[in-house]
Amino acid sequence: MYVPGMQRIAIAGAVTVLAVAGSVLSMGTASAATPTAATITAQQTHKAAPAAEPTGKVVANGGLWTHQASNTASKRLGLLPEGAVVALQCKKAGENVDGNKLWYKIGAGKPGWVAARYVRNLAPVPYCK
């Protein structure tokens, strides 16, 4: 049996139920996003990861030799290919190479020094201590 106006009441009732359900869900979501004391404590006790070492890109045609000390007379340790991106631990003054006396100590646990003249640093590099 069809009663005029009942369809509108049924639809309005369904919309109200959905609206109430949506607000209950959103309240539940908001409270779930609120940090608890345990979460805050865990975040405070978590140690920060060490900062990544700065990097540099080898720009020397044919590659760049790494040396045992910050001069070209010291023992060669290896050859870095042109375009290689390497970690740079720190920099210091050494032998002047084409007008640049800075040398970078290779980072990431690798030994050696490279002439800064042939490395484009991609981030600031601190001086060695």
Sequence-ordered SSE layout with sheet pairings:
Blueprint: H1 6-33, H2 37-45, E1 55-58, E2 64-67, E3 76-80, E4 85-97, E5 100-106, E6 113-115, E7 119-121
Antiparallel strand pairs: 1-4, 1-7, 2-3, 4-5, 5-6
Structural commentary:
With 129 residues, this protein is an alpha+beta fold. Helix content is 29%, strand content 30%. It has helices at 6-33, 37-45, and strands at 55-58, 64-67, 76-80, 85-97, 100-106, 113-115, 119-121. Strand 5 (100-106) and strand 6 form a beta hairpin. Mean pLDDT is 78; it is low at 8-32 and 38-43.
**Helix-residue proportion:** 25-40%
Beta strand %: 25-35%
C-alpha-based Rg, rounded: 32 Å
Taken in chain order, the helices and strands follow as HHEEEEEEE
The main sheet orders its strands as 6-5-4-1-7
Helix count, per DSSP? 2
Summary of the model, kept short:
The protein is an alpha+beta fold and 129 residues long.
Name the features.
129 residues; alpha+beta; 5-stranded antiparallel sheet; two-stranded antiparallel sheet; 7 strands; globular
